[in-house]
Amino acid sequence: MKSLEGKRILVTGGTGSLGKTLVRRLLGGSAGRPAKITVYSRDEAKQHYMRLEYMHREHATDDVIYQNSQDLLSFRIGDVRDLPAVARAMREADVVFHAAALKQVPSCEYFPFEAVQTNVIGAQNLVRAVREYHLPIERIVGISTDKACKPINVMGMTKALQERILLEANRDCPGTVFTCVRYGNVIASRGSIIPLFVEQISKAQPLTITMPEMTRFLLSLERAVDTVLAAVGGGGPGETYVPKVLSAKITDVALALMGGKGLPLVYTGIRPGEKIHEIMVSEEEIHRTVERGDYYVILPVLPELRAGGDLVPALESEYSSKDGNISGDELRSLLSGADDEIRRFLTKTS
């Protein structure tokens, strides 16, 4: 389904790992050929290098269309904390992907109000822009995280509030469909544990792990983008899309990357605000969670946003990273399929 054909698209936080992969996929046209894509972020340096990448890349791949990318792809400096700037950017959009966030758990613990301003007030500014500036936005998709489910840290708490702000906005702004996606650790994304392991192994250093019991959901950037596009194509007002993905012990991730090198593992203790296991659908949410192909869909918490009819829950217990962990060859296959650089690295360590 070409749900984005001819649409003007705004990607907040478009210079991040998810944002860049999403932009590449949008340019590829698998969900329809957009009329315009605007990357909105506050980092001029990242925008500069992203612009150069799209204007001067020597070899185009089959799934990325570079012709006329200067016209199709544009960049806009701005902060989601700034309501007038957000509104100006949204005036030229039909669909908004909201990926701007403070996402590092320790940083949010030490600077909690900064996380509130970006993750909470930033989301509210999108809603205010639609409501107060009477913008005819068709759809807004918020990018959330498994840490928003039963949150114990500031990042998760602010992301949980972001979810509720966007989903409740379906009542105040009935002309716009607000949906969310929620997923776990993205393999090889900036700031994640796997690039750190790769660096430590390359330098023959001990691998640092917080606790031996720790588990995480793992998915590739492409799978994360698949989830976002699925929410655009089929998500109803107030729904949250959750991908069905695999999980593993972080210790097993380290061993899979290490191969036969036999480097020592050093346990450093749990970090501020860190969970041992992540949860993507809580025991409270399972009663309003349905199954759609490769996704679980959490129906709105507000009953007036839910459609009528019988509901058959897709889950009998919470969806936690502690269950069904993979290891060994299965884990190496997952890691190698998620990122070209990791695949080359695993080839060297096998």
Level-1 CATH class name: Alpha Beta
Estimated helix fraction? 25-40%
CATH superfamily: NAD(P)-binding Rossmann-like Domain
**Tally of DSSP helical segments:** 12
Termini separation: 41 Å
Please give the number of β-strands: 16
Query: Strands of the largest sheet, in order across it?
Result: 3-2-1-4-5-6-10-15-14
Largest sheet: 9 strands, mixed
CATH topology: Rossmann fold
Low-pLDDT windows of residues: 59-69
Tell me the CATH architecture. Answer: 3-Layer(aba) Sandwich
Fraction of residues in β-strands: 15-25%
Q: What does the average pLDDT come to?
A: 91
Please tell me the total number of domains. Answer: 1
Overall form: globular
Structural Rg: 20 Å
User: What are the secondary-structure elements, in order, as H or E?
Assistant: EHEHHEHEHHEHEEHEEHEEHEEEEEHH
Query: Which structural class best describes the helix and strand composition?
Result: alpha/beta
Question: What does this protein look like?
Answer:
The protein is of the alpha/beta class. The protein has a single domain, classed as NAD(P)-binding Rossmann-like Domain (Rossmann fold, 3-Layer(aba) Sandwich), CATH 3.40.50.720. It contains twelve helices and 16 strands. The strands form four sheets. A nine-stranded mixed β-sheet has the order 3-2-1-4-5-6-10-15-14, sandwiched between helices. Helix 1 (17-28) links the parallel strand 1 and strand 2 (36-41). Helix 4 packs across helix 6 (112-132) and helix 10 (250-258) crosses helix 11. The termini are far apart. Residues 59-69 have low confidence and may be disordered.
